[in-house]
Amino acid sequence: MAEKRIVRVGAVQIAPDLDSLEGTLTRVLAALEEAAGKGAKLVAFPETFLPWYPYFSFVQPPVLTGAEHMRLYEQAVIVPGPVTEAVSASARRLGVVVVLGVNERDHGSLYNAQLVFDADGSLLLKRRKITPTFHERMIWGQGDGAGIRAVDTAVGRVGALACWEHYNPLARYALMTQHEEIHVAQFPGALVGPIFAEQIEVTIRHHALESGCFVVNSTGWLTEEQVARLSPDERLRKALTGGCMTAIVSPEGSHVVPPLTSGEGILIADLDMALITKRKRMMDSVGHYARPELLSLNHDTRPAVPVHMQAAPSFASYGSASDETDGPGDRAQAAADGAPDQRVAVLRGAAR
């Protein structure tokens, strides 16, 4: 019999500091200390928690968000940089795997990024949300398929998606094919109301069942003072409440511990990793229950970059000036250069 493997995890639900990146980072490091002190070996934080989720964009029209958008740029996280170094040092000292949501600044663009730090402090994964949702498209750029990747950590194979990426079944399936054992889901929290919390619960429990993995989900929280500050219109403040469902779900789709739906706190739970095989024995979506000859996924893992550099050919590639001294390599190059002309000739002949 294999040795029983238990992994203790923590899911953090706290409020950001809406004034500064440094203030929120201080809260992150303090929560890491607290969770590690309770024995957690993996700790998850909410979506774009550093410096804060752009709640303003949900309750203000775009024409009025310029100042707050610029402030978000000024406070956003550069990866790698001082913020990632601080989190890395804490992860290494505490021996904890950390999954952190940040607003990443890459020159003139912001991205919704998820960072996975291993227990030795190394940054194993930086991925970007592939499609920002609704109001978020005014704030963030798009990620690519290269980031949809499960990574090996000190606690097992970890995958991550942000918020409504969980409504993209192909993105979730891409992680399933990589056999994630712990899936970290991140949502902003404090949005839309109780119906959002219900939808989050349905979504993460379904993913746990379908993928046969544990799901650790973290949502954010806003205080009453923060809600009032974000929207002077009392009617819109309801849109900045509720929507919290910090939870830890087993591969059988059940809550390992009761979820946290209001206030601040850290959920701590022990994951019995044997439950993964117990679930997959009955239903393995990418194994014995799959039908790849009928249905399969095309996952483009190439990074999306705005330029593809090609080196200019050297003079040597054109061969020598004398045909009599051409070697085999030169003749092969000449044949390759002439190939397009030959194809054109054949096509013209076929047309006639």
TrEMBL record:
Start and end residues of each stretch annotated as Disordered: 316-352
Pfam family membership, one: CN_hydrolase
Lineage: superkingdom: Bacteria
Alphabetical list of CDD domains matching this protein: nitrilases_CHs (cd07564)
Transmembrane segments: none
Annotated ranges, domain CN hydrolase: 7-273
Protein family according to the UniProt entry: Belongs to the carbon-nitrogen hydrolase superfamily. Nitrilase family.
UniProt-recorded name of the protein: Nit6803 family nitriliase
